[in-house]
Amino acid sequence: xxxxxxxxxxxxxxxxxxxxxxxxxxxxxxxxxxxxxxxxxxxxxxxxxxxxxxxxxxxxxxxxxxxxxxxxxxxxxxxxxxxxxxxxxxxxxxxxxxxxxxxxxxxxxxxxxxxxxxxxxxxxxxxxxxxxxxxxxxxxxxxxxxxxxxxxxxxxxxxxxxxxxxxxxxxxxxxxxxxxxxxxxxxxxxxxxxxxxxxxxxxxxxxxxxxxxxxxxxxxxxxxxxxxxxxxxxxx
Length: 236
Hints:
alpha/beta; 7 helices; 17% strand
């Protein structure tokens, strides 16, 4: 691995979208810093993905974020791209959820974005280029009754990203929010819905990663902020 490569930092690197994003940026010539709480998964992905390095980090812990990003900068360099893909979710009405659940999801979805962006944006501003991409979903746009512990945190995340986009855009840093209006094709969703891998009902992690890559590399004369992706058969 060499510091000559641009660096992409991806939070929430699980077996689906996060891993696919890491693969796409590595294939595109980046050194990839993969953040997740599961160290074993990160080690496995390090062996699978060239120029990718795992960092066990709880992004809700500001001190861990600070220490991890210092390590990333020392080992790989300052990130040119940040993809905040870590997500905390819960199902239940406002009467059913425990208040702590809402707070925990807010820490993952919104506060972690703030902590990561505050520590990566200054170098991007100094360089006059960079991208911060946030993966979201339709809960950022509407509050369905069973999403009381989740939707408010994603709505806050989207608005935070918009404030960042308006601030950083004129400084050369592109911020975008990618709404994934879909169920993503991973093992647990297939089991839950009794559908086979590759069913057209699902959004494929590799296809989502391709769109994240595209948005992160848009020409600066045509930047997007709000981007929506969904399977062709999705009712919306």
